[in-house]
Amino acid sequence: MLTKETVAELTIFYKRQRLTSLIFDDKETADIFVETLTNMFNQKGHDEFSFNGAIKTVYTPDTISDELLSYAEGNISPKGWIVKMMKVIDGLN
Length: 93
Fold this sequence. Notes:
Blueprint: E1 5-14, E2 17-24, H1 27-39, H2 43-48, E3 49-58, H3 61-72, H4 81-92
């Protein structure tokens, strides 16, 4: 099984509405970005901006086919995107 590469996704909200999402090479870089940005905020900025982060897998053709093959062979249990995809496909049949 191939090693999975991950990235940190940071979603920025302004007045509770999604403003944008940014991708960072790792969580630490995203944390530094948030810390630097929030240090520039006044109280209104602290009140109106919020952040949400998630670690996401970076897929390549090899990692997708490897994960699907491992699932098909029973080497791994379905989780994450495979489960979501299975539910969609099952709903179509």
